[in-house]
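Hi support team,

I'm opening this ticket because the web form for multi-chain structure prediction keeps timing out on my end. I have pasted the exact lines I submitted so you can reproduce it. The total is 567 residues across two entries, so I didn't expect it to be a heavy job. Is there a limit I'm missing, or should I split the entries? Thanks in advance, R.K.
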Amino acid sequence: MDKYDEKIYLPLSGIQHFVFCKRQWALIHIERQWKENMLTVEGKNLHERADDPYEKEKRSDLIVSRAMPLISKKLGIQGVADIVEFEKTIDGKGIRIRDYDGFWLPHPVEYKRGIPKSDQSDEAQLCLQVLCLEEMMGANIDKAYLYYHQKRRRTRIKMESELREWTVSMAKEMHELFEKGLTPPAEKNKKCGNCSMKELCFPRLTKKARPVSNYINEMMKEGE
Amino acid sequence: MRKLLNTLYITNPDVYLSREGEQVVVKNEGKKSIAVPIHNLEGIISFGYCGASPALMGLCAEKGVSVTFLTEYGKYLASVQGPFSGNILLRKEQFRIAEDSERRLGVSVNFIVAKIMNSRTVLKRAIRDYEEIAGKQQISFVVERLGRQAENARHALNEDELRGIEGDAAKMYFGVFDNLILHEKESFFFHGRSRRPPLDNMNALLSFTYVLLAHEVKSAIEAVGLDPAAGFFHKDRPGRNGLALDMMEELRAYLADRFVLSLVNRRQVSAKDFVVKENRAILMDDDMRKKLLTEWQKRKRIDIKHPYTKEKISLGLLPYIQAQLMARFIRGDIDGYPPFLWR
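Hello R.K., no limit was hit. The queue was backed up. Here is the completed structure from your submission:
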């Protein structure tokens, strides 16, 4: 028995919104608000992906697979990895792959438009990809990469137990919130200024909730 | 803030709307007459029987651009609905409120308080702005009475009482509405509402403007994922957009009545713009309708500060902002529905 019903696999890429702001994630994934805003948030502009973040030359000891579908039945998550690289090992570590000889170690490379963020949302997404890959292929993955377009280079992220545990707890929390179907209030200390969901969120409404009856009283009093 | 985009109004029945890439192309007798990029559009409203291609409708649905077909008199024919619309959890909560007389009344009170307060402000400002206005005393009396009725509405114990208060307030307000018309009184006068059909020029202008507003409110409600049919104050009736009618109440005086008054008082319309049918029904001629739509679009670009969110918005976004606030209230972000109030 799988833990999650077939119908509630949550999108893997959602975890970056979730880590950034639970309300933003709920607006997108629970409330399904405004597709075009979602695109802004996702930053999925294909034209900007023209330059490939991996070595272009064909190497006999590296396989590059793009847009690989991922799923974790344990975590109820599904999505797509931009790039998964398989490195050939010489010490017999790793896994076998169809149509290829030898043993290989997979790791995802997640492509990001900007520069590294102040929170760990990109790491969470990468770690979730790793967890899916491990579950699907039975590999042990100890590192993966984030590629930042503005820096034009990749950063290696170690898949340590702390990151893994935190990512799993985030995925669980995401399911709990989805189950309730509630959008949490805006978080008090968040910078909402740059958020592309700002106008749908009305952060001020929940940060500095103003009772509606006070507002009506005020509007009825003034100007008398 | 969300950008106010343009609405494309099609008033020529001979044109055909089609898609070319990311553009909406208007063809007249097979020849391209206008092309507009889809990302500049908020919606398309067509009057009369012009056609549109499925490819164009699909593009509009995908980009969240509403497409509405009306008869040349503004009667609703059909609109385009994309593959995803609304949010079931939100709608279910909306229905729960609509089924619960206590919760429903709380929202209805706010609609009606705002409706009365905003029509009162129209009168107050008229007294303030026009030295020469006739019947000042009577208008002042109505202003005072509307103030009291708004208070009464806040404390209404049930819907019947609220309906009574609303009916009285509307009668009082429309009773002095004629005094707000300052010129050409022989062609533009108001002796009460006549709807189907309008029997005088003022009613023709008001009815048409209410149609425009109703469509904007309904589209806004759909855009935020609510169901325009499930109202709180307006009783359910098949084929009636109860919530759209509810949410229109607070905006009628502020957006529509003032607009019609300013058309007349600035002499932007004249008796020649109307056609009288054999049965006394009044219709606007084509040029008048175009003129009205152009002015309506212009007015939407005016910026105001929203009294509740305190943000600067274009007037044209008001229905959308109110629909957003309604959705946020239904989801429990705010403790009530904050209607638009104008002083």
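A quick check on our side: Chain A touches chain B through 29 residues (CB under 8 Å). Let us know if the file doesn't open in your viewer.
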